[in-house]
Write a structure and sequence with these properties.
Layout: E1 7-9, E2 12-15, H1 23-33, H2 38-51, H3 56-64, H4 69-89, H5 106-121, H6 125-138
Antiparallel strand pairs: 1-2
Helix pairs in contact: 1-2, 2-3, 3-4, 3-5, 4-5, 5-6
Length: 149
């Protein structure tokens, strides 16, 4: 059992907020993202993932610099599943909000959105629609442009 609180409100489903990654990990991710050369950025992001393979944001960011659609799909899928693991460990029971407004949720939502986009690129339309629907269920104010940060 964690000490993380899942908020119950009279206005709707519970809301889960993932814990913030340690400052050192966030710093390493920010430094890797800032690298201009795509190959060097990918290598640095892979090192961040290797440092904490359970962190969905690192996987999502690695997927964003993948060499092809299949590699991106695979990394987004891992980030999505690691995010589900983190949500469950923090009280989420398969329903309720996971909002983009909480920075610590953004990696999971970025991975889910990326998975949906990559599924569409690969012609996996049913998966793409499932991801889009799930995003809207998790955050009713969801807009794809949110992930463009």
């Amino acid at each position: 059992m964690t000490d993380h609180v899942v908020s119950l409100t009279a206005s709707g489903p519970p809301e889960t907020v993932l814990p913030e990654a340690p400052a050192a990990q966030r710093h390493a991710l920010a430094q890797a993202i800032a690298i201009a050369d795509p190959d060097e950025r990918r290598t640095a992001l892979a090192a961040v993932v290797a440092g904490d393979p359970a962190w969905p944001d690192a996987w999502a960011r690695l997927a964003e610099v993948a060499r092809d659609d299949v590699e991106a799909y695979a990394a987004f899928r891992v980030g999505y599943h690691r995010g589900l693991d983190a949500l469950r460990a923090n009280g989420w029971r398969g329903s309720g909000y996971v909002r983009w407004a909480h920075e610590s949720n953004q990696g999971f939502l970025r991975a889910l959105a990326g998975l949906g986009h990559q599924a569409a690129r690969l012609g996996e339309d049913a998966e793409a629609e499932r991801c889009a629907t799930f995003l809207r269920q998790l955050d009713p104010s969801w807009r794809d442009e949110l992930t463009q940060s």
